[in-house]
Amino acid sequence: MTRPIPQPGISVTRVFPPEAIAEAAALLRAGELVAFPTETVYGLGGDATNDHAVAAIFAAKDRPRFNPLIVHVPDLDTARSLVGLDERAERIARHFWPGPLSLVLPRRRDCRVSLLASAGLATLALRVPAHPLALQLLRAAARPLAAPSANRSGRVSPTCAEHVMAELDGRIAAVLDGGPCRVGIESTVLDLSEEQPVLLRPGGVPREKLQALLGSIADPEFGGERRSPGMLQSHYAPQRPLRLDAREARPGEALLAFGPDPPKGFAEVRSLSETGDLVEAAARLFASLRALDRPEITAIAVMPIPESGLGAAINDRLRRAAAPR
Ligand code: TXA
Ligand code: MG
Predict the structure, then answer these.
(1) Alpha carbon of 61 to ligand 2 centroid (Å)
(2) Does the residue 122 lie in any domain?
């Protein structure tokens, strides 16, 4: 997967000066990817409410797996429209936002952020960045922005626009150049989705500062597989069994199709992509699994999906969902 991601109408990544907020916001609203500075590191931003833009983030990063992403919002009010904040989360958010702290909280029922940004989880990681350009961009785009660090998978996080270009030139529409990042390490990720707070990733806000306000904070091992981000197998699984590499129908099965010629005879068919487009397939994956995961369906049959590009991440997720539990 070394091929640049085709960006309709845009052949080369543009470097925007700080004044070009409106142009950067317009690209984001059109579903394009724009890297932008935060106080921690540069983020690879996309409209978090647009499944296709979120899928394109994974493709641009060459991520072999769908890890959940941090979603950036301009203020606490916007956060409240996406996740549930208990009294404790409100207190922490008011104290540390804007700032290098991401909070993992339960998605609201009406949360408009793509399920792919949560990698299918019932929680969402949010933060309000403390960088004037990031805040201006969030307000101008008027969308929550999913933004992992703007590097390719397995590389170090970029702290200036030149680093971003070295990693992602040709793969994203633009980078907003705000000079070097102040903090230089990623945000602390704190899981407040359950009673016991869990520190999922150390970062810009030291643990001691959080403990002073919260009392004891557990390490990821505390919740076992349930809460440590690298291994969330059980969370991604639908209730119905999954049958991979399906080429013909079995009684009562629904089909998760891929490509132009799905086999016939299924109780219901949902297509990940009629044209065989893997970015589109990633964008539809989690919502499609949910839609088919109903009691009257005996199993979800999945057509073979190529391993190239985002296919690797899609198949990784499907294999975990199909694994015996
Ligand atoms: O400083 C930062 O946080 C940067 C800048 C751009 O804001 N962003 C960043 O995002 O580092 P990303 O996507 O590279 O890091 C996401 C981290 C991962 O460790 C991921 O597992 C965790 O946050 N995470 C995100 N959503 C989660 C969720 N719902 N549950 C558990 N962990 C989550
Ligand atoms: Mg990263």
Answers:
(1) 10
(2) yes
Strand pairing category for 198-201 and 242-243: unpaired
- Please give the distance, rounded to the nearest whole angstrom, from the Cα atom of residue 5 to the centre of ligand 1: 23
- Whole-prediction pTM: 0.88
Average pLDDT, the chain: 91
CA of 149 to the centre of ligand 2 (A): 4
State the CATH number of the domain containing residue 142: 3.90.870.10
Best mutation site among 39, 54, 67 for ligand 1 pocket (most ligand atoms within 8 Å of CB): 67
State the DSSP code for 4.
P
Angle at 31 between CA 53 and CA 57, to 5 degrees: 30
Specify whether 59 is located in the same domain as 194: yes
Residues 59 and 205 in one domain: yes
The CATH number that applies at residue 260 is 3.40.50.11030
Which ligand ends up closest to the CA of 185? 1
Ligand closest to Cα of 38 equals: 1
Strands (E), 26-156: 34-36, 43-47, 70-72, 101-106, 123-127, 145-146
Neighbours of ion ligand 2 (CB under 5 A): 149
Nearest CA to ligand 1 atom 6: 43
27-42 pLDDT per residue, tens? 999 999 999 999 999 9
71-77-83 Cα angle (round to 5) = 50
Q: What is the pLDDT of residues 55-108, one digit of tens each?
A: 999 999 998 889 999 999 999 999 999 999 999 999 999 999 999 999 999 999
Ligand 1 atom nearest to 69, measured from its CA: 13
Report CA(136)–ligand 2 centroid distance (Å). 23
Residue 54 counted as domain residue: yes
**Is 286:116 a contact under the CB 8 Å cutoff?**
yes
Q: What is the residue range of 31's domain?
A: 14-214
